[in-house]
């Protein structure tokens, strides 16, 4: 069985992904694939430099994520340009890895951890979509603490994604991560038991 796991920035999606993994799920991580795609010398990185200029490179030739983030979060058009470069190769690699894992381990839960699942219209790829949800005020607070940024900047980054309240409406499964870690763990365990995956 496969599921797509998503949730907004600072919602705790990585925490839930780790909990699922600890309980035997196999994870395909879109963020990890995207980091592999932009290794120095890769064709994808070359395309990004051609589009955004060499100021987005660090001295060692690797991608300066903070610099690129500052550019794309401030300009919707540039963010869409980056998505056009990054999304097709990431999607192709993700599908390949999902298929390989499902073929090799038909009895295991395969989880695709994808930050912008709904924005990228990938929900059709999965049997179910699980959304990690927190209310907006908690999301803002956690992002400010995590990245050491101002409230305005946190709100700007959150606004570049589909609101979690909308994602929650679309989800097949919702994990509410606004309480304690134990509470989140309990919800994950209940899901796995319900699916008979233990």
Commentary on this structure:
The protein is α/β, with parallel strands linked by helices and 198 residues long. The protein is built from nine helices and five strands; from the N terminus they run E-H-E-H-H-H-H-E-E-H-H-H-E-H. It has a five-stranded parallel sheet with strand order 2-3-1-4-5, with helices on both faces. The longest helix is centred in the middle third of the chain and has 29 residues, at 76-104. The protein is globular and about 50 Å long. It starts with a strand and ends with a helix. The mean pLDDT is 94.
Q: If helices are DSSP runs of H or I spanning 4 or more residues, what is the number of helices?
A: 9
Give the low-pLDDT segments. none
The largest β sheet comes out as: 5 strands, parallel
- Whole-number mean pLDDT: 94
Q: What is the CA-atom radius of gyration, in angstroms?
A: 17 Å
Distance between the termini: 13 Å
Helix content: 55-70%
Strand order of the largest sheet: 2-3-1-4-5
The fraction of residues assigned to DSSP E strands is 5-15%
Total beta-strand segments: 5
From the spread of the alpha carbons, the general shape counts as globular
Question: Helix-strand pattern, N to C?
Answer: EHEHHHHEEHHHEH
In terms of quaternary structure, the protein is: single chain
Class computed from helices, strands and strand pairing: alpha/beta
Task: Please write out the topology.
Elements (H helix, E strand, L loop, with lengths): L1 E5 L6 H10 L3 E4 H8 L5 H10 L12 H10 L1 H29 L5 E4 L14 E6 L2 H12 L3 H9 L4 H7 L2 E4 L4 H14 L4
Parallel strand pairs: 1-3, 1-4, 2-3, 4-5
Helix pairs in contact: 2-5, 3-5, 4-5, 6-7
């Amino acid at each position: 069985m496969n599921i797509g796991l998503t949730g907004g920035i600072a919602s705790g999606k990585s925490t839930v992904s780790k909990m699922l993994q600890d309980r035997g799920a196999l994870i395909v991580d879109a963020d990890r694939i995207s980091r592999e795609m932009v290794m120095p010398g890769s064709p994808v990185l070359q395309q990004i430099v051609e589009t955004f200029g060499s100021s987005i490179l660090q001295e060692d030739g690797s991608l300066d994520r903070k610099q690129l983030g500052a550019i794309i979060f401030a300009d919707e058009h540039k963010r869409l340009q980056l998505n056009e470069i990054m999304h097709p190769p990431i999607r192709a690699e993700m599908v390949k890895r999902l298929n390989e894992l499902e073929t090799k381990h038909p009895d295991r839960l395969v989880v695709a951890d994808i930050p912008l699942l709904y924005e990228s219209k990938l929900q059709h790829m999965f049997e179910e979509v699980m959304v990690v949800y927190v209310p907006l005020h908690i999301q803002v607070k956690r992002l400010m603490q995590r990245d050491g940024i101002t409230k305005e900047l946190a709100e700007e980054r959150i606004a570049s994604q589909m609101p979690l309240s909308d994602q929650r409406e679309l989800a097949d499964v919702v994990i509410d991560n606004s309480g304690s870690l134990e509470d989140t763990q309990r919800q994950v365990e209940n899901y796995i038991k319900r699916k008979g995956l233990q």
